[in-house]
Design a protein that fits this description.
- The complex is a heterodimer of chains A (115) and B (114).
- With 115 residues, chain A is mainly β.
- Chain A is 0% helix and 50% strand.
- Chain A has no helices and eleven strands.
- In chain A, the strands form two sheets. In chain A, strands 2, 4, 5, 6, 9, 10 and 11 form a seven-stranded mixed sheet that branches. In chain A, strands 1-3-8-7 form a four-stranded antiparallel sheet, with no helix packed on it.
- In chain A, a hairpin with a 2-residue loop joins strand 5 (43-50) and strand 6 (53-57).
- The radius of gyration of chain A is 13 Å and the shape is globular.
- In chain B, strand 5 and strand 6 (44-50) form a beta hairpin.
- Chain B is globular and about 45 Å long.
- With 114 residues, chain B is mainly beta.
- The chains are: A mainly beta (115), B mainly beta (114).
- Chains A and B meet through strand 4, strand 5, strand 9 and strand 10 of A and strand 6, strand 10 and strand 11 of B.
Chain lengths: 115, 114
């Protein structure tokens, strides 16, 4: 069964550094998402992406965050200058063309630790 | 504000026992409703979803959930739990107005004793 994959599984970085989290969505999917889960808290929506542009974003997704689909297979989340409070598990998801009416398939997550 | 509440942070059951995980939502209108499961080291896997129609929804792995509009609830049930069901379970909702944003509850961790 096709899966969403994410790399790395764990990323440790210093505060103020840039990080790029990578995701490979399921190949025929057209909608892409990032969510995050701070330890002990809810999974929170960050951003959705379709047709090479952001379709929706949350208030968490400020100017420090950006997303890109650089080569037609990868989907990346960049945090320009990490803060301690960015430490969380970041989940990528992808879906087919029906948006919320269809299933979002999630990857295993990348745990980001900011020191 | 829209919210999803899972009142049980941690539940422990014996293998073979029945299970009910609670989920309540606060919305202006009936949203789309979902249950996801996360096993250790795995992504979130969809168990079942409710959009409309029959309020009792069947999912994978023997799970079912019942939508009760009067109680704003979407509780997950399984008649006989297996040790492999030990995982974190998340209830999620989405508005029906052309959004693809899932709003999650805080999750319930299920522990199964042999």
């Amino acid at each position: 069964e096709p899966e969403v994959t994410q790399t790395p599984s764990h990323q440790v970085t210093q505060m103020g550094q840039e990080v790029i989290l990578r995701c490979v969505p399921i190949s025929n999917h057209l909608y892409f998402y990032w969510y995050r889960q701070i330890l002990g808290q809810k999974v929170e929506f960050l951003v959705s992406f379709y047709n090479n542009e952001i379709s929706e974003k949350s208030e968490i997704f400020d100017d420090q965050f950006s997303v890109e689909r650089p080569d037609g297979s990868n989907f990346t989340l960049k945090i320009r200058s990490t803060k301690l409070e960015d430490s969380a598990m970041y989940f990528c998801a992808s879906g087919t063309s029906s948006r919320i009416a269809d299933t979002q398939y999630f990857g295993p997550g990348t745990r980001l630790t900011v020191l | 504000a829209q919210s999803v509440t899972q009142p049980d942070i941690h539940i422990t059951v014996s293998e073979g026992a029945s299970l009910e995980l609670r989920c309540n939502y606060s919305y202006g209108a009936t949203p789309y409703l979902f249950w996801y499961v996360q096993s250790p080291g795995q992504g979130l896997q969809l168990l079942l979803k409710y959009f409309s129609g029959d309020t009792l929804v069947q999912g994978i792995k023997g799970f079912e959930a019942e939508f009760k509009r009067s109680q704003s609830s979407f509780n997950l049930r399984k008649p006989s739990v297996h040790w492999s069901d030990a995982a974190e379970y998340f209830c999620a909702v989405a508005r029906r107005d052309n959004t693809d944003k899932l709003i999650f509850g805080t999750g319930t961790r299920l522990q199964v004793f042999p």
